[in-house]
Amino acid sequence: MLSRSSLAFILTLFAGSLFAQEFRASLSGRITDPANAGVADANVVVRNVENGEVYGSKSREDGTYTVLFLTPGKYVITVEKAGFKREVREGVQLEVAQRAVADLQLSLGQMNQSITVSAGAEILETESADRGLTVESNRVLNTALQGRN
Q1: Residues with Cβ within 8 Å of residue 98, at least 6 apart in sequence
Q2: Are residues 130 and 97 in contact, defined by beta-carbon separation less than 8 angstroms?
Q3: Cα–Cα distance between 20 and 116 in angstroms, integer?
Q4: Closest CA to 87 of 115, 112, 113
Q5: Side-chain half-sphere of 100: how many Cα atoms within 13 Å?
């Protein structure tokens, strides 16, 4: 029979391997005003362009936000807060298991005014050196293997 410490160690290893299998991406960043101060309680909406899935979050007191479990694909980020113009960032490409960072700055104005950024600065992943990629079945089928008949 296993001791409690052995069982805890085995469960920890198992839980770690489950975490390593995650393919979905995450998006985080900081919402700031023109003075570079964090904007609290801003509505952050992340929409998948390809399938229409919508994910939401609110910025914390320091202006940071996090959206987890995003399927890889192309996204549009929309940020709204009363007293500021709506900020829209298009063309955000998330890859397999990516932990992307997208900081956005809001301009003073009304929410019915908006600023749209297309093909803006690249989204950087600074939290991890992990890389994932999607391999199409056609590429797998056409890969030469030694000794293949």
Answers
A1: 25, 26, 72, 123, 125, 132
A2: yes
A3: 35
A4: 115
A5: 28
For 91-129, write each residue's pLDDT tens digit: 999 999 899 999 999 998 876 666 666 655 556 666 666
Which residues make beta-bridge pairs with 124?
A: 101
| Per-residue model confidence as pLDDT tens digits over 5-31 | 665 666 666 665 555 568 899 999 999
Pairing of strands 25-32, 99-101: parallel
Model's pTM, two decimal places?
0.65
Which tokens in the block code for residue 71? 């399927």
DSSP β-ladder status, 86-94 and 99-101: unpaired
